[in-house]
Amino acid sequence: MSEFKRVLAVDLGASSGRVIAGTYDGKGIAMEEIHRFPNTPVMLGGHLHWNVLELYQQIKQGVKLACRRYPDILSVSVDTWGVDYGILDGEGQLLYTPHHYRDRRMYDVRAELEELLPPEEQFRLSGNQPDPINTVYQLFADWQSNEALRSGAERILLMPDLFHYFLSGVAAAERSILSTSGLLAAGAAEPSGEVFARLGLPERLLPDVVEAGTLIGTLRRELCEELGCPPLAVIAGASHDTAAAVSAVPYRSKERAAFISCGTWSLVGMETEQPVLSEACYSQGFTNEGCFGGGNRLLKNITGLWLLQETQRTWAEAGEDYSFAELTELAEREPSPGSLVDPCDPQFAPPGDMPARIREYCLRTGQAVPESRGAVVRVIVESLAHAYSEAIAALEVLTGRSVDTVHMVGGGIKNKLLCQLTADATGKEVVAGPAEASALGNMLVQLAALGELDPAHAREAVAASETLEVYRPVRGASIPGSI
Q1: Is 315 left (phi over 0), alpha (psi -120 to 50) or beta?
Q2: Calpha distance 450→292 (Å, rounded)
Q3: CATH number at residue 429
Q4: Catalytic residue check, 241
Q5: Tens digit of pLDDT for each residue in 368-397?
Q6: Structural domains counted in the chain
Q7: CA dihedral angle for residue 448, residue 449, residue 450, residue 453, rounded to 10 degrees
Q8: Has residue 421 been placed in a domain?
Q9: Which of 285, 461, 470, 313 is nearest to 390 (CA)?
Q10: How far apart are CA 145 and CA 148, in angstroms?
Q11: Could you read off the pLDDT of 232-255 as tens digits, one per residue?
Q12: Does residue 124 lie within any of the structural domains?
């Protein structure tokens, strides 16, 4: 029998998905991308949906290719974004294609929901920052508008749980993904009865809640035959992609560290033993979500590299293609323009001409308007670093804990200018890595669930798997202090 232990991570993002094989040699994990595919939403009848059957077909293709290459794969687990879900009927069939969180139906019922359950009470009961994209808003909208759904719905499964169900036939609700929904009691592994009662929703819609790292079943027999695979274990891992990423943070001291999971969105937070439900936490936009192994992620969701991605796309459409590395080089050659934007300002949320909106924001707020391409990118990167710094300073106050190290993980760490500016803005040491944090965390949790890795040594395995880069604040470096 092979001395290596191999697992398969399915890592689904809002625009693409990947199936990645991980090989553990007792010290570190080597990752190999087996299959990559687009994740393209579909507009149908005026509503935005995920093409979930196509995603499932692509997952199956990835599993097939992986098992052909590595017949000794032990297990598979899926991680995705939060809040979205599928609905099953009494026969276990999917009632309709799951909606996308950018669908607008929730806004029709927002006022009614918030009269029944005001935002402050949502936060108190669930620990989640209220937002129309949250599962609770989506489910209330569906329940109010769809009589056939009310009569036919038996279960809801958030996206990774839905794919685990497709793979194994077992319906289970993993806590880290469900903790993004607004439906769980704060810090608990059970529904908030008060949330369900206030909104007239039946608690039976949630299946049994399981902890991250639960082996829920094996690959369906017919899938094994179709794909030529052994009966792989299907594991409900840290199924929310941020929970998976945080599972791979190589802390030196968790008590004195903050994390930034940096990609299209940036999640800035700390791990705490219990949810933080103070008025200050609510008013400053922080939310509470579950972790692998228990505990809580206190974090703030900040628009991240979306601004840079849309800037790149805008210039590409005008015939000027720049790689992200080239954009960073342009910014590095520019002095600080002294201007900042709020990355979370609603004007930056839709797709479109991002450079024009950045210039308009600076003009409207009386700041220097960036004219060159390098200056526009510099404003974006400095603004992100400043937003991270403000969030970390707020975390220190909210928790009473001092931070001396900021761990940055995710694809955004490839932008070395952003990492250095974050160190300068926070005045703290930044440890960057791993870049593939969600996939690596997914694998770590699987190995722990299989008994192949002691969770206490998971972060040692990260250090053995990845090269970490340290950025120290430059004395005298500064970023403008207000937006």
Answers
A1: alpha
A2: 15
A3: 3.30.420.40
A4: yes
A5: 999 999 999 999 999 999 999 999 999 999
A6: 2
A7: 10
A8: yes
A9: 285
A10: 9
A11: 999 999 999 999 999 999 998 999
A12: yes
Q: CB–CB of 395/270 below 8 Å?
A: yes
8 A C-beta contact, residue 432 and residue 419: yes
Residues 338 and 368 sit within 8 Å (Cβ to Cβ): yes
The answer to whether 205 and 199 have CB atoms below 8 angstroms apart is no
- For 79, the token pair is 């991680």
Q: How many CA atoms lie within 13 A of 165 on its CB side?
A: 23
Nearest to 331 by CA among 363, 365, 375: 375
The dihedral sign for the CA sequence 260, 341, 15, 32: negative
Q: In this structure, are 294 and 157 located in the same domain?
A: no
For residue 156, the enclosing domain spans: 5-236
Shared-domain flag, residues 192 and 44: yes
Instruction: Say which residues have a Cβ less than 8 Å from residue 54's Cβ, sequence separation at least 6.
Output: none
Note whether 75 and 10 are within 8 A (CB): no
With contact defined as beta carbons under 8 Å apart, do 158 and 207 qualify?
no
- Residue 88 in contact with residue 171, Cβ under 8 Å? yes
The percentage of residues in the chain with a pLDDT greater than 70, rounded to a whole number, is: 98
**pLDDT (tens digit, 9 = 90+) per residue, 87-102?**
999 999 999 899 999 8
pTM across the whole model: 0.93
Catalytic, out of 241, 321, 424, 454 = 241
CA-to-CA separations, 361 to 328, 340, 355, 358, 373, in angstroms, rounded: 21, 9, 10, 5, 16
Strands 257-262 and 265-272: antiparallel
Is 56 a domain residue?
Answer: yes
Amino acid letter for position 168: S
Please check whether residue 277 is in contact with residue 267, taking contact to mean a CB–CB distance below 8 angstroms: no
Residues 127 and 21 in one domain: yes
Judge whether 163 lies within some domain: yes
CA atoms of 173 and 171, how far apart (whole Å): 7
- The pLDDT confidence band at residue 1, using thresholds 50, 70 and 90, is very low
The whole-angstrom separation of Cα 271 and Cα 32 is 29
Query: Per residue in 346-370, pLDDT tens?
Result: 999 888 999 999 999 999 999 999 9
Spatial neighbors of 346 by CB under 8 A, at least 6 apart, are none
* pLDDT at residue 198 tops 90: yes
Confidence of residue 482 (pLDDT cuts 50, 70, 90): very low
Cβ atoms within 10 Å, residue 351 = 10
CA–CA distance, 236 with 231 (Å, rounded to integer): 16
- Going by C-alpha positions, the residue among 1, 27, 18, 3 that lies closest to residue 444 is 27
Q: Which residues contact 472 (CB under 8 A, 6 or more apart)?
A: 423, 429, 430
Name residue, tokens 């008013």: 283
Name residue 6's beta-bridge partners.
Answer: 23, 73
